[in-house]
Amino acid sequence: MSREKIFIVEGDEDISELLAYTLKRNSFIPKAFGSGEDFLKNITEEKCDLVLLDLMLPGIDGLEICRRLKKNPETSEIPVIMITAKGEESDIITGLELGADDYIVKPFSPKVLVARIKAVLRRKEQIGEISKDNIKIHNIEIVPGRFEVKVDGNSVELTASEFKALHFLASRPGWVFTRYQIVENVHGDNYPVTDRSVDVMMVSLRKKLGTVGENIETVRGIGYRFTDK
Questions:
Q1: Which CATH number applies to 131-226: 2.40.50.200, 1.10.10.10, 1.10.1740.10, 3.30.2350.10?
Q2: pLDDT of amino acid 221
Q3: Cα gap 134→143, rounded to integer Å
Q4: What's the predicted TM-score (pTM) here?
Q5: How far apart are CA 19 and CA 4, in angstroms?
Q6: How far apart are alpha carbons 81 and 96 in whole angstroms?
């Protein structure tokens, strides 16, 4: 039986109550926060297994909360599902780029919500099995536990998506992955990006890594690999 603790950050009290009710009925343990400020005060003291995050919050908005969660080593691995309104496509893309794991649009089906939660929690467990060890290759050190990347001993600041993509490729040097496989392992199924968006992310990643970024090779007609030579 699932007993994962899920934090709800939702400004609409009715929606918050519906979310809490749905979670309880499916054996989760919900805790609701009406503002981003209250949530941020609690998250470093009381850990949770997943966050349901409304983007349209009073005060600190959902995107800023997501940004802070993913930049803090203590909270960066907590999965985030964004709760959005129709017409917020640009915010959805921004949130996913910041490291959010999925999104659901209001009004939502409780069954779909629970299915999304379970899928994200499964991915978290699967990723955790291969992401604990540090990786050292080609003067790059990747520290998953701290979401940290160093090149020749110097820290490199990456977005959450860039970090996950680099870790995925570098953990399997020499293997070729399609753009779809990269996106799926970074964000899971149904991530709303085009092949071009993946290419743009790779260009940015190479630039930030400097000369070491040349080890991320484009395999024409297929995708990318991190060279093992």
A1: 1.10.10.10
A2: 78
A3: 5
A4: 0.62
A5: 14
A6: 9
With beta carbons less than 8 A apart as the criterion, state whether 143 and 132 touch: no
Q: Where do you find CATH 1.10.10.10 in the chain?
A: 131-226
Give pLDDT tens digits for 69-82.
888 878 888 899 99
Residues of the chain with CATH 3.40.50.2300: 5-129
Report domain 5-129's class.
alpha beta
Which residue's structure tokens are 């599902």? 81
Residue 136: count other Cβ atoms within 10 Å of its Cβ: 12
Q: What's the CA gap between 84 and 96, in Å, rounded?
A: 12
- Report the percent of the chain where pLDDT is more than 90: 35
pLDDT tier, 87 (very low <50, low <70, confident <90, very high otherwise): low
